[in-house]
Amino acid sequence: MSEPATRRPRHRWRRRQTVLVAAGAALVLLLVAGVFALRSPSPVGHWDSADGHDRYLAAYTEAFADLPEPQQTHDVRTDFGVVRVYRFAGTGDAAAPLVLLPGRAAASPVWADNLPLLLEIGDVYTIDLLGEPGKSVQERPIRDDADQAEWLHQTLQALPEPEFHIVGMSIGGWTAVNLAIHRPATVASVTTVDPVFVFADMPLGTIVRSIPASLPWLPKSWRDSFNSYTAGGAEVEDVPVADMIEAGMQHYRLRLPQPSRISEDELAGLGVPVLAIIAGDSVMHDAERAAATAERALPDGVVHLYDGASHAVNGEHPEQIADDLDAFLERNS
């Protein structure tokens, strides 16, 4: 199944604005989930209204136009719902495809600046996380970390390749590691891009600052302010992917469990190669502590600390990430 989309030229000057400007919504949406779990009996993520969903879909379509044309579009049925997957044909010769997992409240369009470079490595799939704003549709409750791994495992099993290099940003990085812990059969390697809940805890200041932005009835400017804060001060107004993320934050009611912090023992027990990319100026954790944990717990892993990068590191340094990932895969081929 394919979806038509109008293509338009990509604008490199908007990079910091157009990719991961609201990856900090990993935290915001966790708080929103707690607020609304007390107000609604629904056990699965859902839209607050048809109008809210329409607003989101319009923003998604606008943001999606910055991506290359997908070769295929799949809706994969799992025990927990239907998962939207896009396949992009690459020009590289990687033995296994890349699978890109976005941050919370984000979806496939956040990879716009990364995809052209990653396609030089090999074929790429992007996935809209189940239970998040996007085009995946949650149908049954996801109750714990094992369920989070299970829906993704079932999705990958439905694809034709036997193994994949999993690349996750923010909460997508946690999702990638969680998969490798619980359901590693299809995982060839894991790359985390400034992940949350993996190598360090969130600072109290970030938690406190996120609270006003977690209330969807407050003005859009409050959510934009927090999203800009997580992206190192980048402007987020009138930016397609930022509009998409903000619409999801306002209109989608998350029903996902709080992710468990990955322990050092779990990291040490991973049976696949791991590349950890950590943003030096990330507000989502103490970067030096996160890097130290990764180096200590992953003796055979590769750890890169990007000095001066914000949590929007994938949009700030797409070339460096592609180069580091290519070298990592070459080393472990």
Write the layout of secondary structure elements.
Layout: H1 15-18, H2 25-37, E1 46-47, H3 50-64, E2 72-78, E3 81-88, E4 98-101, H4 115-118, E5 124-127, E6 137-138, H5 145-157, E7 164-169, H6 171-182, E8 187-193, H7 204-210, H8 220-230, H9 240-251, E9 252-253, H10 264-268, E10 274-279, H11 287-297, E11 302-306, H12 313-316, H13 318-331
Parallel strand pairs: 4-5, 4-7, 7-8, 8-10, 10-11
Antiparallel strand pairs: 1-9, 2-3, 3-5, 3-6
Overall description:
One of its GO terms (molecular function) is monoacylglycerol lipase activity. This protein is an alpha/beta fold. The protein has a single domain (15-331), classed as 3-Layer(aba) Sandwich (Rossmann fold). 38% of the residues lie in helices and 16% in strands. The chain contains 13 helices and eleven strands. Strands 2, 3, 4, 5, 6, 7, 8, 10 and 11 form a nine-stranded mixed β-sheet that branches. It has a two-stranded antiparallel ribbon with strand order 1-9. α4 (115-118) links the parallel β4 (98-101) and β5 (124-127). α3 (50-64) packs antiparallel against α9 (240-251), α5 crosses α6 and α8 packs across α9.
Give a brief description.
It comes from Natronosporangium hydrolyticum. This protein has 333 residues and is of the alpha/beta class.
Biggest sheet overview = 9 strands, mixed
Strand content: 15-25%
The structural class is: alpha/beta
> Fraction of residues in helices?
25-40%
> What name does CATH use for the topology?
Rossmann fold
In whole angstroms, the N-to-C terminal distance is: 32 Å
Could you name the CATH homologous superfamily? Alpha/Beta hydrolase fold, catalytic domain
Please mark out the parts with pLDDT under 50 across 5 or more consecutive residues, or reply none.
Answer: 1-39
Count of runs of 4 or more consecutive helical residues: 13
Question: What integer is the average pLDDT?
Answer: 85
Topology order in helix (H) and strand (E) letters: HHEHEEEHEEHEHEHHHEHEHEHH
- Number-wise, the strands total 11
**What's the number of domains?**
1
